[in-house]
Automatic annotation (TrEMBL), chain A:
GO cellular component term, pick one: plasma membrane
Organism taxonomic ancestry: Bacteria, Pseudomonadati, Pseudomonadota, Alphaproteobacteria, Acetobacterales
Compartmental location: Cell membrane
Protein's name according to its UniProt entry: Carbohydrate ABC transporter permease
Membrane topology: Multi-pass membrane protein
Family, as annotated: Belongs to the binding-protein-dependent transport system permease family.
Residue span(s) of domain ABC transmembrane type-1: 71-261
Naturally occurring in which organism (per UniProt): Gluconacetobacter azotocaptans
UniProtKB/TrEMBL annotation, chain B:
Homology family: Belongs to the bacterial solute-binding protein 1 family.
Gene3D superfamilies: Periplasmic binding protein-like II (3.40.190.10)
One GO cellular component, as annotated: periplasmic space
Domain of life: Bacteria
Keywords: Signal
This protein's name: Sugar ABC transporter substrate-binding protein
One Pfam family, short name: SBP_bac_1
Compartments where found: Periplasm
Alphabetical list of SUPFAM superfamilies matching this protein: Periplasmic binding protein-like II
Signal peptide limits: 1-33
From TrEMBL, chain C:
Cellular component GO terms held in the UniProt record: plasma membrane
Membrane topology, as annotated: Multi-pass membrane protein
Family that this chain belongs to: Belongs to the binding-protein-dependent transport system permease family.
Primary localisation category: membrane
GO biological process assignments: transmembrane transport
Designated name of the protein: Sugar ABC transporter permease
PROSITE patterns noted in UniProt: ABC_TM1
Domain ABC transmembrane type-1 intervals: 84-295
Localization annotation: Cell membrane
Organism superkingdom: Bacteria
PANTHER family linked to this entry: BLR7065 PROTEIN, INTEGRAL MEMBRANE SUGAR TRANSPORT PROTEIN
CDD domains: TM_PBP2
């Protein structure tokens, strides 16, 4: 293979990859751009590629809704639910990976099958439960639900990570007289940290984007960003620009967070589940 | 922060309940503690203005704080219904339609309202007020109300040498539409709701069917969708939209059509009267100078209920701040509020369709040339009036029974399928008849 | 974790833990198991109970025992089969697209090219966008037959814009949902490819294997476990797709894009028929468990390997 052909091939590959990346990203880019248009600009045909950017839609969005209140709820709920799910799933995954019994596999599969409970079918029972426990419109309520819905996936992912940890290392620790607590906190967790981090990241993303329970179980005090979007999604009058601005605001934090932590996510996954 | 543990929350709630009770007792007393009202509302333009202006209310009522929950209509409806039916008491003030008010009032879920003399309840348009009254008591106060009328583009009519009569018939509408349609320039003669939903395409279709002489049920609750009248109405609807409608008619609801008409893509549009204020607003509409209006068209039957919708403020019986809530509700639906909006946003933006005094105002008539049309349309909406055959239900463009949300949505989808060409009109009506029959059987309405 | 440690062969999990250790294991497992038991059994019990009751939130006159009538109502619905079929097409279609395209793109993005880091970040971005927003975005800004960017592009080249959501509702939904999940597949599969030893690939290349042969005999077998992971997680979410449908087509036109979750919603929950919705919930749980049984068995086999 000549050097020239190799270079041409590289350019072709780069071109194809970039074309795909831009095509996939385009809708998001367009949403961000539309947020900076005026309402009539946003529905002009054909669409204007070059326009005079304005912050008027953003101003209106901020004037109408207290964005920071929703964003803070989203952050609090996602972080707390992810931490809770990880704290619960570490011991469970440890037991499954290192102390397997006859029923371990069955338990794991059963856990995953609980995740398939369809929300529309159980809305009213859950609503009644939330009401009688005083958890309606509280962050605690959503944290509990998100912890429980994500738990099976977390346990399963951590289990696959833990299985990659060489048993001899743990055994060596045990020979030195480490208690189980020390074995977990001082040997296992440091080794599996990348895996735990990416599990947590995935949980954060899933919590942030959940829109069924958050819309139905909260109203104001604990309402996260999906509720914020629901107040802009189809009002009377022109709304494309405002909707785009609100959507950009709702998506931006997790998108930037995802971009920044992308390497971490990949590093963790490499370590376990998909190796 | 309210992350408190569950027992703490229950305790707090119990406290609040007690506080609420004592407040009821003390309501007449001079001073009471500050209360927070949670208001659930839709994201429509008039409500957005109300939210903006509510600062004025808080200024004049320093002991009442307002907490707003603004949601898209469908989400709001599901949220509020679940809340009130389970008596969860999350909201103190609800924004609900005249569809819900009588049904909920009969369940005892709403607090009866007794506005004082200064409020002048007799100033409310009679047909609107009738829809909110059950057994002589008012259960909600109207924030704005709408009926139906025909919008058209004067410039396009002039160019085609046509004149719109004050009260057109559906045959005329079709003829006009055929003449105006110019698909090459993306001008479509007729825009109508096609987006499935009981409050979207079925609102229009129900009023169309009424004037064609059809109806949803006979006195024994037997569905009548297999009648010749339904067939005639639906055939007109599908035929007209296919020939002269915009592409993608099945995804156009009120809002989409408003945008289409406002950006110059529609020749005519038959829809809610609230669109008037928006189409005449040059900031929202490119065709503000060329909008004409006429009454809603008449079909072969020529009578029948047309359309009456109102968005109202109501107070759930489970609220612990009934007295304060009523203070806000009467403020937001008062004559003073109308004047406040006129001062801050201009007369064209005031909530329409609720008060006679609004229509008597010379300033409003000047700012809103469509005012008298809207007034007449609401007066003639006749939601409990006779259909061609006697009917057991009330409602103009809906059926005032709890099952209608599901029925309307289902039939709305079937009508949309006919409109998109997936099924024929005959096929659609057979399917619709069967599915409505199933639902009324299951719910025990029809034996 | 450093390379040296990773090279240590993974011993099979210790043969048979002692009795004491197994008791400890049960203890460690119990918090998660107990919570999940409560979470799955309490709503399930309530759902089962309501599903045989006549119970409508907005009609308190409906009370009493309903027998099987709630189930009969749902199962004899002429649209039930359509909804099942649509669910299968939606899940299957998205899985085929995301796994198929995801594998190819993962290989593509594994090559070195200019600006690879940024391109990768762009391509995984849709995964971070909430489903409601992506549905609104595609419906209004991209595919709208008049204002949509895609329609403008079609008009620019002299074609008539297609009203995607009413002409091809299910296919369009498959497309939108695939857009949301393709990044996830790429992320997982790319990671898996990267963990493949460069030496192994190099060796294959030295042996004269062409790119196709390398893909077929080295990369694909290596990916099988990652692919099961993708299928597993995606299926969990795809069975319950709801927001995308309710925002874009509301299940229509007709029932062309109604899946099981949306059918339950529109037949029962919309009229606040708790009995009917519960029966639907039970049916959905049974179906999900049938799917789960097949799927999980496949996953489990792959995980043991």
């Amino acid at each position: 293979m000549t050097r020239k052909r190799a270079r041409l091939q590289r350019i072709a590959i780069g071109g194809a990859a970039w074309a795909v990346a831009l095509w996939v990203f385009f809708p998001i880019l367009w949403m961000v751009l539309t947020g900076f248009k005026t309402e009539p600009d946003a529905i002009s045909t054909p669409p204007h590629l070059i326009f005079h950017p304005t912050l008027s839609s953003y101003r209106e969005v901020f004037a109408r809704e207290t964005y920071w209140h929703f964003a803070l709820n989203s952050v609090t709920i996602s972080v707390l639910a992810s931490i809770a799910a990880i704290l619960l799933s570490i011991p469970a995954a440890y037991a499954m990976a290192f102390l397997p019994g006859r029923r371990t596999r069955g338990t794991l599969l059963w856990m995953l099958s609980t995740r398939m409970l369809p929300p529309v079918g159980v809305l009213v029972p859950i609503y009644l439960l939330a009401r009688s426990t005083g958890l309606l419109d509280t962050r605690t309520g959503l944290v509990v639900i998100y912890t429980l819905t994500n738990l099976p996936i977390m346990v399963w992912m951590l289990y696959t990570f833990f299985r990659e940890v060489p048993v001899p290392i743990l055994e060596a620790g045990r020979m030195d007289g480490a208690t189980r607590w020390q074995e977990i906190t001082q040997v296992l967790l440091p080794l599996a940290l990348p895996g735990i981090a990416s599990t947590g990241l995935l949980s954060m993303i899933l919590c942030w984007n959940e829109a069924f329970w958050s819309l139905n179980l909260t109203s104001s005090a604990a309402a996260p960003l999906p509720t914020f979007i629901a107040s802009f999604s189809s009002p009377e009058g022109l709304f494309f620009a405002k909707l785009s601005a609100a959507s950009t605001l709702a998506v931006a934090p997790i998108l930037v967070f995802g971009w920044l932590s992308q390497k971490q996510l990949v590093r963790g996954l490499t370590f376990g589940a998909v190796k | 922060m309210r992350v408190g543990s569950p027992p703490a929350r229950i305790f707090k709630q119990a406290l609040r309940r007690c506080a609420g009770l004592s407040m009821l007792v003390l309501a007449a007393g001079p001073a009471h503690a500050a209360s927070t009202l949670t208001i659930a509302t839709v994201n429509n333009a008039d409500m957005v203005i109300m939210k903006q202006l509510s600062g004025e209310f808080e200024k004049s009522h320093p002991d009442i704080h307002l907490n707003w929950v603004t949601l898209e209509e469908n989400v709001l409806r599901q949220r509020v219904t679940t809340d009130i039916a389970t008596r969860s008491g999350q909201f103190d003030i609800l924004t609900i339609g005249n569809y819900e008010v009588p049904i909920w009032a009969k369940q005892g879920w709403l607090a009866a309202l007794s506005p004082d003399a200064a409020y002048d309840a007799d100033d409310i348009l009679p047909s609107v007020k009738a829809g909110l009254t059950v057994d002589g008591k008012l259960y909600a106060l109207p924030f704005y109300a709408e009926s139906v009328m025909t919008y058209y583009r004067k410039d396009l009519f002039a160019k085609a040498g046509l004149t719109m009569p004050d009260a057109p018939t559906y045959d005329q509408i079709r003829t006009f539409a055929d003449k105006i349609t110019d698909k090459g320039n993306q001008v479509y003669g007729l825009c109508l709701r096609g987006k499935p939903g009981w409050g979207e395409n079925m609102a229009y279709v129900t009023s169309l069917v009424n004037t064609f002489g059809g109806q949803w049920f006979d006195m024994a609750w037997r569905p009548m969708l297999d009648s010749a009248e339904w067939k005639a109405a639906l055939t007109w609807y599908v035929g007209a939209l296919k020939a002269d409608g915009p592409p993608g008619a099945t995804s156009n609801g009120f809002n989409e059509n408003l945008a289409l008409f406002g950006s110059g893509h529609c020749g005519m549009w038959i829809d809610s009267t609230v669109a008037g204020g928006l189409l005449f607003d040059p900031a929202q509409s490119h065709v503000a100078g060329n909008v004409g209006f006429a009454a809603a068209p008449l079909g072969p039957y020529g009578k029948g209920p047309t359309w009456l919708w109102s968005w109202n403020l109501a107070i759930p019986a489970s609220s612990s701040h009934t007295a304060d809530a009523q203070t806000f509700v009467t403020w937001a639906t008062s004559k003073e509020y109308v004047r406040l909006v006129a001062r801050t946003h201009g007369w064209v933006a005031v909530p329409a369709g609720t008060r006679l005094s609004t229509y008597d105002s010379a300033e409003y008539q000047k700012a809103a040339p469509f005012a008298s049309f809207v007034h007449t349309a609401i007066d003639r909406a006749d939601p409990n009036g006779p259909t061609k055959q006697p009917r057991p239900y009330g409602g103009a463009q809906f059926v005032a029974i709890p099952q209608f949300q599901a029925i309307g949505t289902q039939v709305g989808q079937i009508v949309a399928a006919a409109l998109s060409g997936q099924t024929s009109v005959d096929q659609a009506l057979t399917t619709a008849q069967a599915s409505v029959t199933r639902t009324v059987r299951q719910s025990g309405l029809m034996r | 974790m450093d390379q040296a440690a990773r090279r240590i062969p993974v011993a099979a999990p210790v043969g048979r833990p002692s009795h004491a250790r197994r008791t400890g294991g049960a203890l460690l497992l119990s918090p998660a198991v107990i919570l999940l038991l409560i979470w799955s059994l309490v709503p399930l019990a309530m759902t089962l109970w309501y599903s045989v009751r006549r119970y409508n939130l907005v009609d308190p006159t409906q009370v009493g025992f309903a027998g099987a009538s709630n189930y009969v109502y749902l199962l004899t619905d002429p649209d039930f089969i359509t909804a099942l079929l649509n669910t299968a097409i939606l899940v299957g279609g998205v899985l085929v697209i995301t796994v198929g395209l995801g594998t190819l793109l993962a290989v593509l993005f594994d090559q070195s090219f200019l600006g690879r880091g940024i391109a990768r970040v762009l391509v995984i971005s849709p995964f971070f966008v909430m489903p409601t927003v992506s549905a609104l975005l595609w419906k209004n800004l991209m595919l709208h037959p008049i204002y949509g960017v895609y329609s403008a592009m079609m008009r620019a080249v002299g074609l008539t814009p297609v009203d995607w959501l009413s002409r091809y509702p299910l296919a369009t939904l498959v497309m939108i949902v695939s857009w949301e999940w393709l990044p996830f597949a790429i992320l997982i599969l790319l990671t898996a490819i990267q963990s493949l030893d460069a030496e192994q690939k190099e060796a294959a290349r030295m042996d004269g294997a062409g790119p196709l042969a390398q893909f077929r005999y080295i990369i694909l077998p290596h990916l099988s476990r990652a692919i099961t992971v993708v299928i597993m997680i995606e299926t969990i979410f795809l069975l319950a797709v709801f927001a995308e449908i309710s925002v874009t087509t509301a299940g229509g036109p007709g029932v062309a894009s109604t899946n099981l979750a949306f059918l339950i919603y529109s037949r029962a929950l919309l009229q606040f028929d708790v009995g009917g919705a519960s029966a639907g919930g039970v049916v959905a749980i049974v179906i999900a468990n049938i799917v789960a049984a097949f799927l999980l068995r496949a996953v489990a086999r792959n995980l043991e390997a």
